[in-house]
């Protein structure tokens, strides 16, 4: 049942606890005015399982009606018409419970000392001055039923937060607090990626929407607030090239199909499912198409993974230690491969059937 305009979300949650199953209608307020390239929005439109179109058009069984407010996909002409639901939500007057999606790093306005702004979204209705992203977070954060950070910039700061940046950029949890809880009782849901893998984000958003209806529990998150089922394994564990690592068979250049650890791949220590999931329609993914993993889903990105093309510190040691084992295993497998690549001798076109039956285990 949809919350009526003017009814607080806290009241709605209390009512749900008294027998209501959840919400029938939810707004998604998507702000990409963080320090960003808008690449996460563009990437999200490539999802097919589910697609954003299917969610908005109500084609996914069991989801609430979804009203998406995203500047790239908005049917409005922009301006005040587009800003209206954001302004209402900031006043605590949202017509429906809303999920706040933030794209882009959060700059530190404190270091400007009130003189100017790093990035803004709309203007103050009284003064006409630009409203910084931080103002919107301060006013929308307390009212949001759920908050989702889309992409590594929004989750952990990303490129804009690297050492030496002048903006003091940070991730959403660094700004709102790692102990932040939304009006729906949820922590921030971080979906990292530079940009997000399309299905990773839409699958997570769909889970949050099912939770809003009361049909699913909260999404399980790890200590860095990432969905556990998506980021619980490393790139290496799902990589098509992992067997080459086991056999100590390493690429020496980027044209090789072998393990790329020695040419700069951080896959063994990076939490990401892209090699298994692919990028679009199950196709692609960095190591799958010859690209090294540079750790773009990780909180330490990019500083902890630079310079990108150098062998990771642990890669040199691990590749040396595994070399004797890998060489032996590769040789033994080669011998076995040669044996099983031959047909048994009893398969012939002669005048007697020889089955090859040999009960050698009997006395």
UniProtKB/TrEMBL annotation:
Q: Name one Pfam family in it.
A: Oxidored_q6
Q: Which InterPro entries match?
A: Cytochrome-c3_hydrogenase_C, NADH_UbQ_OxRdtase-like_20kDa, NiFe-Hase_small_C_sf, NiFe_Hase_small_N_sf, NiFe_hydrogenase_ssu
Cofactor(s) in the UniProt record: [4Fe-4S] cluster
Answer yes or no on keyword 4Fe-4S: yes
- Kindly list the places in or outside the cell where this protein is found, as annotated in its UniProt entry: Cell envelope
| Sequence ranges assigned to domain Cytochrome-c3 hydrogenase C-terminal in this UniProt record | 231-308
Keywords of this entry: 4Fe-4S, Iron, Iron-sulfur, Metal-binding, Oxidoreductase, Signal
**What are the NADH:ubiquinone oxidoreductase-like 20kDa subunit domain coordinates in residue numbering?**
37-206
Subunit architecture: Heterodimer of a large and a small subunit.
Similarity-based family: Belongs to the [NiFe]/[NiFeSe] hydrogenase small subunit family.
- Per its UniProt record, what PANTHER family does this chain match? HYDROGENASE SMALL SUBUNIT (PTHR30013:SF5), NIFE / NIFESE HYDROGENASE SMALL SUBUNIT FAMILY MEMBER (PTHR30013)
Q: What is this protein called?
A: Hydrogenase expression protein HypE
């Amino acid at each position: 049942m949809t919350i009526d305009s003017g009814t607080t979300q806290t009241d709605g949650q209390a009512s749900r606890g008294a027998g209501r199953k959840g919400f029938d209608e939810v707004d998604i307020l998507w702000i990409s005015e963080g320090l960003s390239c808008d690449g996460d929005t563009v990437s999200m439109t490539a999802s097919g399982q589910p697609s954003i179109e299917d969610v908005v058009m109500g084609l996914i069984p069991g989801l609430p009606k979804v009203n998406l407010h995203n500047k790239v996909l908005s049917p409005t002409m922009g301006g005040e018409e587009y800003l209206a639901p954001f302004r209402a939500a900031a006043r605590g007057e949202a017509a429906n419970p809303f999920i706040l999606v933030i794209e882009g790093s959060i700059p530190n306005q404190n270091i400007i000392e009130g003189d100017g702004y790093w990035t803004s979204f709309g203007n103050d209705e009284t003064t006409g001055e630009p409203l910084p992203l931080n103002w919107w977070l301060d006013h929308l954060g307390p009212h949001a039923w759920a908050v989702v950070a889309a992409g590594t910039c929004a989750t952990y700061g990303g490129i804009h937060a690297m050492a030496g940046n002048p903006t003091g950029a940070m991730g959403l949890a660094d700004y709102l607090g790692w102990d932040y809880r939304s009006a729906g009782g949820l922590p921030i849901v971080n979906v990292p990626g530079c940009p997000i893998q399309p299905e990773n984000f839409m699958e997570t958003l769909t889970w949050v929407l099912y939770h809003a209806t009361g049909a699913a529990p909260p999404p399980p998150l790890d200590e860095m607030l990432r969905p556990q089922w998506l980021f619980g394994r490393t790139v290496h564990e799902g990589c098509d090239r992992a067997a080459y690592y086991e056999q100590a068979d390493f690429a020496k250049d980027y044209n090789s199909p072998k393990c790329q650890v020695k040419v700069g791949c951080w896959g063994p220590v990076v939490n990401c499912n892209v090699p298994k999931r692919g990028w679009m329609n199950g196709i692609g993914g960095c190591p799958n198409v010859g690209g090294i993993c540079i750790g773009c889903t990780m909180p330490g990105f990019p500083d902890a993974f630079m310079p990108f093309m150098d062998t990771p510190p642990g890669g040199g040691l691990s590749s040396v230690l595994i070399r004797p084992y890998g060489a032996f295993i590769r040789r033994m497998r080669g011998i076995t491969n040669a044996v099983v690549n031959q047909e048994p001798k009893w398969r012939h076109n002669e005048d007697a059937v020889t089955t090859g039956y040999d009960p050698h285990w009997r006395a």
